[in-house]
Amino acid sequence: MADIDKVGSAEEHQAPGALVEWEQRVAGYQGEPPFVQEPERDSAIVAALKDAAIAAGIAAALFLFFIGFRTDIDFGGLELTTRWQAFAISVIAVFFGRLLFRVLFWGPRQRGGRSLAARAMASRAGTPLSERFSRHSGLFGSFALAAAVLYPVIILLAFPLKDKQFIDLGILVLTYIMLGWGLNIVVGLAGLLDLGYVAFYAVGAYSFALFAQYFEVGFWFALPVAGLLAAFWGIILGFPVLRLRGDYLAIVTLAFGEIIRVVLLNWYTFTGGPDGISGIPDPTFFGLEFARGDDNLPGLLGIKYDSAYKQAYFFYIILALAMVTNFVTMRLRRLPLGRAWEALREDEIACRSLGINTVNTKLTAFAIGAMFGGFAGSFFATRQGFISPESFTFIESALILAIVVLGGLGSQVGVVIASIVMIGGFELFRDLAEYRMLIFGLLMVIIMVWRPRGLIATRDPSAVLKERKSISADMVAQGEGH
Amino acid sequence: MEYFVQQLINGVTLGSIYGLIAIGYTMVYGIIGMINFAHGDIFMVGAFIALTVFLIMLAIGVTALPLILLIVLIVAMLFTSVWGWAVERIAYRPLRGSFRLAPLITAIGMSIALQNFVQLTQGARVKPLPPQIQGGVTLMQGDAETGAIVVQLSYMQIIIIVTTVVLMTAFSLLIAKTELGRAQRACEQDPKMASLLGVNVDRTISLTFVMGAALAAVAGVMFLLYYGVIDFYIGFLAGVKAFTAAVLGGIGSLPGAMLGGLAIGLIETFWSGYFSVEYKDVAAFSILAITLIFLPSGLLGKPEVEKV
User: Fold this and answer.
1) In this complex, do A262 and B278 lie within 8 Å of one another by their Cβ atoms?
2) What is the pLDDT of residue B261?
3) How far apart are alpha carbons A461 and A459 in whole angstroms?
4) Other C-beta atoms lying within 10 Å of the C-beta of residue A5
5) Which of A263-267, A432-436, B57-61, B274-278 is predicted with the least confidence, judged by mean pLDDT?
6) Which residues of A touch B131 (CB under 8 A)?
7) Chain B residue with minimal CA distance to A187?
């Protein structure tokens, strides 16, 4: 050990044979230091069993008062029932689930939660899959658009019995895609964390519903008005929160969303309160209605009226609205305004020193994001025919934000994929009606842990020096909420 | 005047409950800078555990009310802490060091999951618990001639306020004097440096969640006993209000959380007492917005200094 100091010294390097010898010696020192004893480890299987037993013990503590006991209202008070069987099954399920998970995913050598964390970290840096994906995102976009355009036709031809249900699902997914794109402007591009986006959705929906109720105007007249009103509310919200950042902004926008909902709920004489507004008219097709009768569109075309056709019409309206949202967003990104949004997201102070008017930049982001929310709300009102404050709870805001974040903030394609996964998956579990919100919540957690940067983890820069190449989402300060 | 005093008492009681929940938000925010959206639901879980333990106590024939209350409080705190720990372990720890929005989304997911788990296992209907602690101290006698009402400070209100004050003092001492508190403050300032100096950051964060959950459980027990009605959805509004309280008081500051809780409780009570019950939430949120606009770091928060 004494000559270790000489290793790599200058004299040795000068001798021709010394280098080889030196490399050999270094190789000898690699690996574990010889005098440190291997800490005694449990064999893999014992460790796995121990780990699973701990997990089961924790699960027992968690579930004891929820699955083990149940309180129900009974005559003369509350009644306590026990469900030891279900409790035992759930704890055993956790034991074997954990064991299986460990054996399958972690392998014997990685221990504890680190490996999961490490995997999560590793997947952040843009896996090849998502990189390949974003390289061909243009292609994917055209393909998806074509698929969307053909979707109602395929459904009408292929599933004549369940057509309405499937087209309805398509409409729902597209509505969330549109909302996601609208929110993406605020959160993904401008980096302003908005937890009350549903407020603008509500403003749009109620604008149309109230206009239809009091002035008997149609959808196509109300649509731009609803958008403008929502944008106006976006500015109203934007003004006071200009100075706020990060989570303060989040909580004030959340509060704003709740205020709108509470007002809608309690202003009974104007909004109908919890009863909502019904009888909202359907959109017309250049003045023609989708209804029975010879004067209406199906009659004039000489086809039999089928409500599925109306559904298909709704589908194309929301598709067009969503595409307008996407188109405007993509174009805005190339305008100085869009660049200013992204610059603002990265660094507000630098923005100011470069002479960008941050007040206007933030307000336009809020206003334009809100406007698309308003459009979507207006569409929602006409599709449902009935709206009430129940539809505009915080969960909706959370869902839209989840779609944007899970898809990958700032990524337009990501929003599409996340909407299909979330909303489609949500509908898939319709049979498990009781469990699906639970599954939905857990799914949000799992996807996020699996891919913290969202499903699409690479970004296209909006300004490039020489060549366009996608960068990892880690390089972008998305949603930091400056 | 009598009406005012009565509202004041009610407001302080409600504010104490909000304050207890708000401490959980503020501690977590202080140490890892995230909104723990599931915290309101941890409070709800605490209330449900308390209800079940209460019924078990009655079923096995324990009759001494103080003993029951003590056991309920301790068991609820213990088991709710496990929930708090588990939520952190499952949803937040894997995302440590990730970007800011990721844990926010998992928190929302956890909140949805918790609500629906409780709804599934305990049913969606509200659970009424008849008032257990009755009576109180009459502070001002009513007078039929002047129309003055009786001002009463119920024993339950006394218990809530005293418990809150005791716990608040205990936790302030814990943060200020003990090794754990020191570790927490160190992690708050600089987690990387703290871990270099031998502080187990993960463990400290876990313990912060455990402490927050324990306090939320106390709030849950108080809520259960004071209002006597709980369901799986109480966590959301209470959580939002408590977070509002934490922000109002200056997030990251323990006395601030308590002060903010009191402020929100008082605003809400006085608004419902003098104006309209329907718009009490609007009032609380508006006050929040106004405070933040004119005092962006809250009542007791330190202004954020940004280095360029």
Assistant:
1) yes
2) 92
3) 6
4) 8
5) A432-436
6) none
7) B101
What's the rounded Cα separation, in Å, for the pair A27 and A23?
6
A130's enclosing H/E stretch is helix A128-135
Q: Residue B301 — pLDDT band, cuts 50, 70, 90?
A: confident
Instruction: Parse chain A into domains and list their residue ranges.
Output: 44-124, 128-475
What is the token pair recorded at A19? 């280098």
Q: Provide the 8-state DSSP code for B125.
A: S
State the amino acid at position B7 in one-letter form. Answer: Q
- Under 8 Å between Cβ of A208 and A229: no
Tokens of A209: 């519903």
Identify the closest residue of chain A to B59 by CA–CA distance: A80
Q: Judge whether A409 is closer than 8 Å to chain B, CB to CB.
A: yes
What does CATH list as the number for A128-475?
A: 1.10.3470
Pick the residue from chain B with its C-alpha nearest to A119.
B94
C-alpha to C-alpha distance for A454 and A473, rounded to whole angstroms: 9
CA atoms within 13 A on the CB side of A230: 34
Q: Which among B8, B37, B39 has a CA at the least distance from the CA of B268? A: B8
Any idea which residue has 């100085």 for tokens? Answer: A336
Q: Enter the tokens of residue A22.
A: 């030196």
* ipTM computed for the complex: 0.86
Indicate the helix (H) or strand (E) that contains A115.
helix A114-124
Q: How far apart are CA B271 and CA B281, in angstroms?
A: 9
pLDDT mean by block of 10 residues, chain A; 482 residues? 46 56 62 56 79 90 88 78 89 91 65 46 49 64 81 78 80 93 90 89 92 85 91 88 74 85 87 83 75 66 72 88 92 89 85 88 92 94 89 87 85 88 79 79 86 73 68 60 44
B217 and A CB contact within 8 Å? no
| pLDDT above 60: residue B78 | yes
Domains of chain B by residue range? 16-233
